[in-house]
């Protein structure tokens, strides 16, 4: 499975990412969600810190 996420932000372009290929749908969706968070971090829309 490969999942794609498209996030539409107000007053901004849509952010589209694709997760890594995984054997099951849940893992594929988790991968896409994580990719989206990192993309938002690159764009300066969120801050990701390690605890």
Word description of this protein:
Helix content is 35%, strand content 16%. The chain is flat and about 35 Å long. The protein has one domain. It has one helix at residues 25-42; strands spanning 4-7, 15-18. It is of the alpha+beta class and 51 residues long. The protein contains 1 helix and 2 strands, in the order ββα. The model has no long low-confidence stretch (mean pLDDT 93). Strands 1-2 form a two-stranded antiparallel sheet.
Task: Write a compact overview of the structure shown.
β1 and β2 form a beta hairpin.
List the helices and strands and how they pair.
Layout: E1 4-7, E2 15-18, H1 25-42
Antiparallel strand pairs: 1-2
Any descriptors?
single chain, 51 residues, alpha+beta, two-stranded antiparallel sheet, 1 helix, 2 strands, 16% strand
Question: How would a crystallographer describe the biggest sheet?
Answer: 2 strands, antiparallel
The secondary-structure class comes to alpha+beta
The largest sheet has its strands arranged as 1-2
Q: Say how many strands there are.
A: 2
Low-pLDDT stretches are: none
Order of helices and strands: EEH
Shape: flat
Nearest-angstrom radius of gyration? Answer: 12 Å
Mean pLDDT figure: 93
């Amino acid at each position: 499975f490969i999942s794609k996420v498209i996030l539409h932000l107000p007053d901004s372009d849509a952010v589209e990412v694709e997760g890594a290929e995984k054997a099951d749908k849940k893992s594929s969706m988790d991968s896409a969600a994580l990719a989206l968070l990192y993309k938002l971090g690159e764009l300066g829309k969120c801050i990701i810190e390690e605890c």
